[in-house]
């Protein structure tokens, strides 16, 4: 079920939504170095990640804009929380599954683009999601970061289990655990055993 298909970064300029096209044009003009124009893009539409790489994981999310796909999936309350809570909500499974594009973008310092199809779970909800993902490595004042923009193609709630014992369920999340479910036919990484 979970699948990532690499796409050409130049396709962002041709087929991306307006925000993706704008980000690509800005990145290309300065090759990602000290781009003041990235501040012109409302942080409502992007996620910002640390430039520090962690083996086998996405870099840590620093910011999640309220109009992003991630905010839609984890909920606006979690999206506004400090980075540690946000990263826990994204889940270890997601951070493993989604990591390669960030590493490739930050190591080679060039935009990366792909098509993602997966099942994402957060709290008691599971979603089938399909989206295009564009990652732009940037360097501001000598510090690397990655900017993520997603173009949602399909989101469908496929499971919702309400916790009747908790009166908060159905409104705000009761915990911040979540993540991506990979195809059950695949062998789970050893790190899953500890969860």
Q: Which key terms come to mind for this protein?
A:
195 residues, 7-stranded antiparallel sheet, disordered C terminus, alpha+beta, 32% strand
Tally of DSSP β-strands: 7
**Average predicted local confidence, pLDDT:** 79
Report Rg.
Answer: 17 Å
Helix content: 25-40%
Please report which band the strand proportion falls in: under 5%, 5-15%, 15-25%, 25-35%, 35-45% or over 45%.
25-35%
Number of helices, where a helix is a run of at least 4 consecutive DSSP H or I residues = 6
| SSE class | alpha+beta
Major sheet description: 7 strands, antiparallel
Order of secondary-structure elements: EHHEEHHHHEEEE
Shape category: globular
End-to-end distance, in Å? 22 Å
Low-confidence stretches: 164-195
Give the quaternary arrangement of the chains: single chain
Mind explaining what this structure looks like?
- The protein has 195 residues and is an alpha+beta fold.
- Helices cover 27% and strands 32% of the residues.
- The chain contains six helices and seven strands, in the order E-H-H-E-E-H-H-H-H-E-E-E-E.
- Strands 1, 2, 3, 4, 5, 6 and 7 form a seven-stranded antiparallel beta sheet that branches.
- The longest helix is centred in the middle third of the chain and has 15 residues.
- It is globular, with a radius of gyration of 17 Å.
- The chain starts with a strand and ends in a 14-residue tail after the last strand.
């Amino acid at each position: 079920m979970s699948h990532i298909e690499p796409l050409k970064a130049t396709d962002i300029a041709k087929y991306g939504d307006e925000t993706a096209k704008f980000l690509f044009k800005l990145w290309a003009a300065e090759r990602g170095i000290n781009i003041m124009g990235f501040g012109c893009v409302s942080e409502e539409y992007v996620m910002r990640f640390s430039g520090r790489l962690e083996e086998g994981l996405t870099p840590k999310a620093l910011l999640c804009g309220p109009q992003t796909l991630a905010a839609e999936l984890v909920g606006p309350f979690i999206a506004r929380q400090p980075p540690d809570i946000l990263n826990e909500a994204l889940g270890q499974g997601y951070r493993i599954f989604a990591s390669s594009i960030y590493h490739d973008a930050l190591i080679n310092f060039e935009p990366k683009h792909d098509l993602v199809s997966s099942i994402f779970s957060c709290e008691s909800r599971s979603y089938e999601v399909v989206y295009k993902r564009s990652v732009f490595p940037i360097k501001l004042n000598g510090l690397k970061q990655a900017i993520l923009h997603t173009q949602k193609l399909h989101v469908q709630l496929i499971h919702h289990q309400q916790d009747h014992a908790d009166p908060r369920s159905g409104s705000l999340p009761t915990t911040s655990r979540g993540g991506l479910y990979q195809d059950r036919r695949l062998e789970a990484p050893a790190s899953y055993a500890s969860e």
